Description:
The protein is an alpha+beta fold. 48% of the residues lie in helices and 19% in strands. It folds into 2 domains: 218 residues, Dbl homology (DH) domain (Dbl Homology Domain, Chain A, Up-down Bundle); 105 residues, Pleckstrin-homology domain (PH domain)/Phosphotyrosine-binding domain (PTB) (PH-domain like). α3 packs across α6, α6 runs parallel beside α9 and α8 packs across α9.
Amino acid sequence: THKDISSLNNCKHVFFFRAVTSWSYGKEDKNVYYELFIKKKDFHLCLGNANLPLCCPFSQFFVEILKAKGTLKQNVREAIFSSIKDIHSANQSLLVHLENGYFGKGLVQFCSHLHHYTVYVDNIFNAKKVLVVQLKKNKAFRRFKKLQEARPEFSSHKLEDLLQLPIERIHQYKHFLQDLTANTSPDDPEFEQLSKAFHEVNKVFQRIEDNTRRHENHLQLCRVQKLLKGKRTKILTAGRWYIREGWLNKVPQKGDEAKPRMFFLFSDMLLQAKRCSPLDLTNGEKFVGQHAYPLQDCSVEKVFGHTRSKGGLLSLTFPKAKVLLMSNNQEDLNDWHQNLSAAIRKLQPKATVIHQREDGWGGAAMQQRQEEAHGECCSRARTLTCTASHLSCAAGPEIVHVSVLRLKP
């Protein structure tokens, strides 16, 4: 309604400045086009409890001044702020196009600068680490950071929050373009440009998601490595993914009492560990790795009826071992079975599918080629036989043995 549009126009938290909505009512299709106005320097992106402008000037107040003052060395400055100046410039150019009504053109041009976002998102976790180090050992930088964060332009945001701003903006761009493209008619002159812009922004968005998952997985691997006593068991391995951990009772094969053990499940192995002795003052909270079972060529089976309907048994068969794991919690047992099955399934080699070629190698053409090959082989065999007979006659009383290989087509 006009009332709703008016309230949206007065809302400073609105990221969308134009959208197209379509719907059907009965047999009548209605298209409603509405625009949400934007003002120069009043285009906001919600971050936390405050708004920051699209072209947030923290590049100017941090990067440029730090470069002029020489507070940070160039390599350190680039490690923290990466390509933020290029990102700031791309956003300024986009804002100018949008204010002048060049919607599709502005987005297409903006997408040509998305590689600056790619560089930035690949460096963001390293930037935070370098920032922490500099805040610890560089007193001048600590003081400078505190003064700049007090500027009214930053709405009391810390530098750590400002560094995250380009990442948050890509999330906003992605959702905005997704909604806008989905609600724009394919006949619209700007539909192709909007679709291309959404595709390009979504690739950067997926890169952010992938980087975040890899970073979180790395943190989990580091955490498990620190939980283990010593360095005999190596957890940090390229391509390894952390899945889960928990206590399970390992049932011995000789009928002894089941013993609780901590198990860590990764994408390529199941690690069994036990708690260190409480008398060990330095490692009392850690674990000792006992067995690392590779999941390659492993099979898992759920066994029921051994715990009176409370939980059950998991039977794991490895090339050189067989392990029985028991849990009294049915839900926990089901989760372990599901996680183990999924991890094993991903390690299984995929079946190779051979597709019949259609470029002269199928049907009658294939049969003709086989007949030609068969004829050629027969001809070669006859030639070799004749040659053998000729050599035998020329040798006189001596016998010449010649092995003739009959080739199959």
